[in-house]
Specification:
By secondary structure, the chain is α/β, with parallel strands linked by helices. It has helices spanning 20-36, 54-57, 65-84, 99-112, 114-118, 146-151, 180-183, 199-203, 216-219, 225-236, and strands spanning 8-13, 41-46, 90-96, 123-129, 152-159, 193-197.
Amino acid sequence: VSVERPGHVLVFVHGYNNDIEIVHKRQVQLQQDLAAEGFHGLVIAFDWPSDDSTLNYLEDRWDAAEVALKLVTHGIEPLAARQRAGCDLNVHLLGHSTGAFVIMEAFAAAQKSKKLFKSDWRVAQVGFVGGDVARDSLSATSDWAQPLYSRVMRVTNWSNGYDDVLAVSNAKRLGVSPRAGRVGLPSPPHAKSVNVDCSPFFKALDPDDQPAFGTFCHSWHIGNPVFARDLALTLEGRIDRR
């Protein structure tokens, strides 16, 4: 199956404690993998300062509003403005790990901005891989998720039950609720969201058969051709999500 519709920009938002070198490697690999699947679009990376600190890591101790708002004002909004001017451009977001938190906080921050709240900007598809956000935060009744769901066409969450980086037994996660990247979306999910349980597929993978960028169970997506195909088709949207 080929992906033929032009006019796609995918903004990749990295996670916690990633340096520029590995972010760049992931961006290049993602671009190559999507192109190999016939995706005619551009992958760009949104880099944000992330420290190796437990206090910065935990959601309830870390204020990402300033960084998140820049994702909107310097990233999403300029691209969306071209769409309003008649350019056939679909803007997508892909958040890895804590990048999912930054994306959700970006929509929440935009909701509080008078200028952005009144403007008619939209994002086509949002995807989370190894998403480091609470499962319940993506529910249909979540106040935090409402700005996200109101501005997107679809949210896709790729989960992996073998992602021990997101395990509640992790020393940095004591007391945090189950992560969407490990246990999936709440039931019933929001009408705009869909969960892809990758656990059986991941269990059969050999780490030596693909490039590695970080802890394999948490970042296996980038460098995997099957995931790239699924992502490409999801972004294009011609095939129904179910």
